[in-house]
Amino acid sequence: MVTSVSHTLFVCTTCASVWQDGKRIGESGGQKLLNKLQNLAENWELRDQFPIQAVECMSACNRSCVVAFAAEGKLTYLFGDLVVDDSISAVLECASKYYAKENGLLPWSERPEPLKKGILAKIPSLS
Ligand code: FES
């Protein structure tokens, strides 16, 4: 499918942080998720059409790790409870399905396993 609509995969890099005395200890789970997604996305066919963008927080902190799919004229999805190593390929697979749908609709049965249970929001498009 060819589309000119811009898409973004948001990844929270603060999720699953360990804090001590107000400072983060080591690398957060969200940062690990972002790094692994970026590595895998180097060979992803939608790499240029569906950029990955780091964000500091999407206010779903108790459901880490958290990602979101957004695009003009499509539903916006927020997913949580993602375990880093179990969800990398699933996130890109689900993003590809989202990209292919005109309205972005991702029914439960079509989502890969790691993104079936952790859905936190499905927000209508502006149009
Ligand atoms: S820390 Fe990740 S959503 Fe808030």
SSE map:
Blueprint: E1 7-12, E2 18-20, E3 23-25, H1 29-41, E4 52-55, E5 67-71, E6 76-79, H2 84-100, E7 119-123
Parallel strand pairs: 1-4
Antiparallel strand pairs: 1-5, 2-3, 5-6, 6-7
Residues 12, 14-15, 30, 57-61, 64, 66 line the site of FE2/S2 (inorganic) cluster.
Can you give a write-up of this model?
The protein is α+β, with helices and mostly antiparallel strands and 127 residues long. It has one domain (7-123): Glutaredoxin (3-Layer(aba) Sandwich), CATH 3.40.30. Helices cover 24% and strands 24% of the residues. The strands form two sheets. The protein has a five-stranded mixed sheet, covered by helices on one side. Strands 2-3 form a two-stranded antiparallel sheet. Strand 5 (67-71) and strand 6 (76-79) form a beta hairpin. Helix 1 (29-41) packs across helix 2. The model has no long low-confidence stretch (mean pLDDT 95). The chain binds FE2/S2 (inorganic) cluster (FES). The site of FE2/S2 (inorganic) cluster has 11 residues, from loops.
